[in-house]
Amino acid sequence: MKAVVKWLDNMSFVGESESGHSVVMDGPPESGGRNLGVRPMEMVLLGMGGCTAFDVVLILQRQRQDITDCQVELSAERAEDVPKVFTKIHVHYVVKGKALDEKKVARAVDMTAEKYCSVSIMLAQCAEVSHDYEIIEHQD
């Protein structure tokens, strides 16, 4: 996997992925940025959310669960001193569907955290990662 990050101006950068997608990153005004894009550490947290949500949806679909929505809410704490790595990350899954099997939802959440989500597993090497979920019955 390859990526290129190009400096635009001030503290703005554009990241280009090997798959041909781009994203703008920027810093806060107090660091010389103009707040035009997400911060790099926010990108890491978003990457974790995307990776784990992908897994949960795919696992539940393969288990023939009638999932209609999946939202992943992440909250993180960072070290106070440089390097300001993540020290704690909590992942809350909001899974919506029709007659979802709670055991299958719990298993999907465990499987992404323990086996499938590369980003979660990598970040768990330096941060305390926890997760929980809620199931919302889809109303027609």
Describe the 3D structure.
By secondary structure, this protein is α+β, with helices and mostly antiparallel strands. It has two domains: 1-38, N-terminal domain of TfIIb (Single Sheet); 40-137, GMP Synthetase, Chain A, domain 3 (2-Layer Sandwich). The chain contains three helices and six strands, in the order βββαββααβ. Strands 1-2-3 form a three-stranded antiparallel sheet, with no helix packed on it. Helix 1 packs across helix 2 (102-116). The protein is elongated. The mean pLDDT is 97.
Shape assignment: elongated
Helix-strand makeup class: alpha+beta
What would the average pLDDT be, to the nearest integer?
97
- The neighbouring-strand order within the major sheet is 1-2-3
Radius of gyration: 17 Å
Alpha-carbon distance between the termini? Answer: 42 Å
Low-confidence segments, given as residue ranges, are none
What CATH architecture of the largest domain do you see?
2-Layer Sandwich
Please report the total strand number as a whole number: 6
Short description:
With 140 residues, this protein is of the alpha+beta class. It has helices spanning 40-62, 102-116, 118-123; strands spanning 3-9, 12-17, 22-25, 66-78, 86-98, 128-137. The chain folds into two domains: 1-38, N-terminal domain of TfIIb, CATH 2.20.25; 40-137, GMP Synthetase, Chain A, domain 3 (2-Layer Sandwich), CATH 3.30.300.
